[in-house]
Design brief:
- The protein is an alpha+beta fold.
- About 15% of the residues lie in helices and about 25% in strands.
- The strands form three sheets. A four-stranded antiparallel beta sheet has the order 3-4-5-6.
- Strand 3 and strand 4 form a beta hairpin.
- The protein starts with 5 loop residues before the first strand and ends in an 18-residue tail after the last helix.
Length: about 250
């Protein structure tokens, strides 16, 4: 029987018929769109511990696997700045992913104590937390030695560095759009307001730095290097069966 479709006025149209293979291909592209990469950048007015202000430029690109309905994850985040009295631009970057070489660090603060730039970050997720040695408090501290960034023990974080002074939620698309809408640098007052929107008490340590070990979601991440996950033995001993009759 001839398919006459549906008629609207004098114009006849038909429902499109997708071939199964074509439909599967479209779904695969949507779920595994790892080639599409977009990059944005913005500037922030960062307040240092001594009251001085410094312009920090930030850039991030998105790409990688995602499922339908999820936003494209951040693949790389870069920031650079010229420290007061330094006369040179200093850069720091973090790549995100499951691979061992990816740092997967979320920057929280940049400050200059004396003439030394410091950067405080936190691991993004359990895999990164294990990769960076399960620090508690869950921070990763870097110190710029004049040539490159070198990791330093969290215990050596200067007391002058008390909390986040850059936007810590910049990885989300919603915050990213708010930041890139600024033609000039994002004012320090707005950075404070954006960070204060995270009212969950479990993440306050990202805004106000602590100096002692804490119990938060990061520190509860499974330790995949522990015997529980690496030992081939059963977690509980099992006594061997005995053929001997029970004693009275």
């Amino acid at each position: 029987m001839e398919d006459k479709g549906m008629t609207t006025g004098d114009r006849r149209w038909r429902w499109p018929r997708l071939r199964p293979a074509l439909g599967i291909s479209i779904l695969w592209v949507c779920v595994n769109a790892s080639e599409a990469v977009s990059a944005v950048s913005w500037k922030e007015e960062v307040l240092l511990h001594d009251g001085r202000k410094m312009i920090v430029e930030r850039s991030q690109s998105r790409g990688g696997r995602r499922e339908i309905g999820q936003e494209t994850p951040v693949a790389k985040h870069t920031l650079w700045f010229t420290a007061p009295d330094a006369g040179r631009t200093i850069e720091w970057e973090s790549e995100f992913g499951l691979e061992v070489e990816k740092s997967s660090l979320l920057p929280l603060a940049i400050d200059v104590v004396g003439t030394v730039p410091y950067l405080v970050a936190t691991p993004a997720g359990c895999i990164a937390y294990n990769k960076w040695g399960r620090p508690n408090p869950p921070y990763v501290l870097f110190r710029f030695d004049g040539i490159e960034w070198r990791r330093a023990p969290v215990a050596q974080m200067p007391s002058e560095i008390k909390g986040a002074n850059i936007v810590i939620g910049a990885l989300t698309l919603t915050t990213e759009r708010r930041l890139t809408a600024h033609l000039a640098a994002v004012p320090n007052q707005e950075i404070v307001l954006l960070n204060a929107e995270a009212k969950n008490p479990d993440v306050l340590y990202l805004q106000h730095f602590v100096r002692q070990p804490i119990n938060v979601a990061q520190t509860a991440c499974p330790d995949y290097s522990s015997q529980r996950y690496t030992s081939p033995k059963a977690p509980f001993p099992i006594s061997p069966k005995s053929d001997a009759p029970p004693t009275e």
